[in-house]
Amino acid sequence: xxxxxxxxxxxxxxxxxxxxxxxxxxxxxxxxxxxxxxxxxxxxxxxxxxxxxxxxxxxxxxxxxxxxxxxxxxxxxxxxxxxxxxxxxxxxxxxxxxxxxxxxxxxxxxxxxxxxxxxxxxxxxxxxxxxxxxxxxxxxxxxxxxxxxxxxxxxxxxxxxxxxxxxxxxxxxxxxxxxxxxxxxxxxxxxxxxxxxxxxxxxxxxxxxxxxxxxxxxxxxxxxxxxxxxxxxxxxxxxxxxxxxxxxxxxx
Amino acid sequence: xxxxxxxxxxxxxxxxxxxxxxxxxxxxxxxxxxxxxxxxxxxxxxxxxxxxxxxxxxxxxxxxxxxxxxxxxxxxxxxxxxxxxxxxxxxxxxxxxxxxxxxxxxxxxxxxxxxxxxxxxxxxxxxxxxxxxxxxxxxxxxxxxxxxxxxxxxxxxxxxxxxxxxxxxxxxxxxxxxxxxxxxxxxxxxxxxxxxxxxxxxxxxxxxxxxxxxxxxxxxxxxxxxxxxxxxxxxxxxxxxxxxxxxxxxxxxxxxxxxxxxxxxxxxxxxxxxxxxx
Lengths: 252, 278
Fold this sequence. Notes:
Oligomer: heterodimer
Mean pLDDT of chain B: 91
Number of domains of chain B: 2
Helix content of chain B: 40-55%
Number of helices of chain A: 11
Strand content of chain B: 15-25%
Helix content of chain A: over 70%
CATH class of the largest domain in chain B: Alpha Beta
Shape of chain A: flat
Distance between the termini of chain B: 55 Å
Structural class of chain B: alpha/beta
Largest sheet of chain B: 6 strands, mixed
CATH superfamily of the largest domain in chain B: P-loop containing nucleotide triphosphate hydrolases
Structural class of chain A: mainly alpha
Radius of gyration of chain A: 22 Å
Shape of chain B: globular
Order of helices and strands of chain B: EEEHEEHEHHHEHEHEEHHHH
Radius of gyration of chain B: 21 Å
Number of domains of chain A: 2
Distance between the termini of chain A: 42 Å
CATH topology of the largest domain in chain B: Rossmann fold
Largest sheet of chain A: none
Largest interface: A-B, 21 and 24 residues
Strand content of chain A: under 5%
Order of helices and strands of chain A: HHHHHHHHHHH
């Protein structure tokens, strides 16, 4: 569940929080592309070090670490599945190689999530909305996206409450074989889905009451404006990205 | 029956929800857990069936340390009804919802049927047995949640905010059911903000604030102490507030129920009339 903590915005007054959200998004995307390009542990380690430095400046280290911790079960799954795949297909000859490459792929997943986490931890849902709108994404889709972000922590809490309610009536979620365990999730998923639909319906009603979609052209109280500082950050990120691409194409 | 021994609970977020709580609740007691939002009431309730285990200290249920038992084992002794009844329902009919818990807890099929019949009758839900739980009203859903728990006959019943979203008639019904369960010898613990509801039940009141127990005693004493209640953002019940204003005229200020207030006022007025005649 702690993985979802990384999708929640936490107010702050740091240089990272003050950056133009578009720049933050682009930097995150550049990091993601590097993660896709490289499956080498050394490069991924450099990237995570860069991310750690950004996170330190943004003062969200504890929450970022929570995202990383939360991604561990998923990373372990990726590691296990890849190891089985590599061994069964004979892609790599030594166990050492199998271990290294499986680890690199699991590492990639962690970085994938942590890159996104930095963006979401330091950007308000409103700023995300403005970013998408400035790129001409129709507001209906933007609204749906930012609502999804806003409701993620609420649904996570609801999931915890439902699990408690079912455990209180004797459902033992952590007992039995994989199939039995999967079946035990039905009492969790049905109320979760029912509650989510109810919430969606209520939200739709609330939006209608507030005349959502009445005006064809929307205006915004806040306007995004990139400052020299934002361009400098973007330029630095692009230089590093260029170096990463160059090294991928022409390794020394 | 229940013993909290110097219990502290800290959530993973760092919030200390219970702070050195020590309290004992005897068999057959009726207890109201009161306090402002975030006082630690729900955390307290979740310790009763082991959903939460103390960060430090110990909780004993029927003499057993909750750290040594699973939630399913503790649920046989303590049935907890949560605030949002919708969190429980996932089956097509009311009847199946009640039977599901019994089967989980390992009851045989004939016992399941008997218990389902009994609990639906007790909670006045017999006519809805083939209806979808999602189609019940708010009050009926709350009663179904209670029926699900009552079906396996736990010795302790704990309810988290049972009156939220209930109309007056539903509250009245709930109150009568709580009284009956308590008369049958069950320990009943309710966590609530609803002073009027508590006033009519006249339970033992445990008042919590910021994770600590700040008062513990008879409802007549706690719910008539305006200063104490306001420190927990709770207002006195209307009857108590009225009687405290009449205290200067010689009326008993430690009265919280309507019936008692009427008796006191009538007696007081008779006394006044006697004095005037004399």
